[in-house]
Specification:
By secondary structure, this protein is of the alpha+beta class.
């Protein structure tokens, strides 16, 4: 996979998947319901905080996704400008490096939104929460240091209503910095509450 970027006000990205080059466009996200039928195969951009909140339960600094571009419900790209801030505090003071667990969280959130979009689900309104179940073959190729633009590219591999397999790669300045494959699932809020209660009481979590 080869990535190239343009420094323009529209922040267009051209990225190549095999022999197919996809050029996204950006416009205001207005329609969230039945969007697959309305946009057909055109790339769709979600970059409003309130719209992103419909797909993720995360808030504040835990909301890693600032924007996402979705292609035919199969691929998604998210950009994150890293200048410092809470993600780097204490890691490390004399040599700031983006922590690997935050990159893992970014992968997870982009995969979650891609699945919700593809299945036309609104995770926040459901009685379930999206959970990262498995991390497979995760490789960190290089340290991520500010300032930089981090690009996360996620590809859907298989999914049902309540589970989704996806592969993810991360790039900084066009260079691969991490890759891996993952499994996300929807878990009942009641089950999660029982798990938390057992853990707080010193019981085993299964």
């Amino acid at each position: 996979m080869k990535l190239s970027f343009e420094n323009s006000s529209s922040k267009r990205i051209a990225f190549q998947l095999g022999s197919c080059t996809l050029l996204p466009w950006r416009n205001k996200w207005e329609v969230l319901n039945n969007v697959l039928q309305e946009v057909e195969n055109k790339p769709v951009v979600i970059d409003e905080y309130t719209d992103l909140c419909r797909y993720l339960p995360h808030r504040g600094p835990a909301m890693m996704v600032r924007n996402i571009t979705i292609y035919s419900s199969v691929h998604a790209v998210s950009e994150l400008e890293l200048w410092g801030g809470p993600y780097f505090e204490g890691h490390y003071d004399d040599d700031p490096i983006f922590p690997g667990h935050w990159l893992l969280e970014l992968f997870s959130q982009v995969g979650c939104i891609l699945h919700a979009f593809a299945s036309q689900s609104d995770f926040v309104s459901l009685e379930h929460k999206p959970v990262l179940r498995e991390v497979r073959n995760l490789e960190y190729k290089a340290a991520i240091k500010p300032p930089c633009r981090l690009i996360a590219v996620v590809k859907a591999e298989a999914h049902t209503k309540r589970r989704w397999d996806f592969a993810a790669t991360a790039y900084v300045d066009g260079e691969l910095v991490a890759r891996g494959s993952f499994l996300g699932v929807l878990v009942s809020k009641k089950i999660l509450e029982r798990m938390y209660a057992k853990k707080s009481n010193g019981g085993s979590v299964r």
